[in-house]
Design goal:
Helix content: 40-55%
Strand order of the largest sheet: 2-1-3-7-4
Order of helices and strands: EHEHEHEEEHEH
CATH architecture: 3-Layer(aba) Sandwich
Number of helices: 5
Largest sheet: 5 strands, parallel
Number of domains: 1
CATH topology: Ribose 5-phosphate Isomerase B, Chain: A
Amino acid sequence: MLRIMVGGQIDKAEIAALVEKYGNGQVSIEVKGDLDAAMAMQAGQADYYIGACNTGGGGALAMALALLGHDKCVTLSMPSSMMSEEEIREQVRSGKIAFGFTAQDKEKIVPIVMDELLKLK
């Protein structure tokens, strides 16, 4: 069972629903504020962090970056760009554990991230 922490600033309930949908019954999900979610990750209470905001790297990922380090976090989309599916998959496979993106990309990004995370399980 993968433990997914949904943080970030916006659309947390919608992102949690997408994680549940694409988690195929193999995930537990907890929704928290960005600081609490990042602290829970740091304490080992979750395996992965997913969050969204309007820029993809600010409110979505700032606390995770501060507490987990840049090598564990990645911004998958920004207002003017989104990584390709293969780039997203590579980021997951490379050991990143915290993923930030813009809320408008959640329906494209969450299925890819979840598919790749379930392969790592």
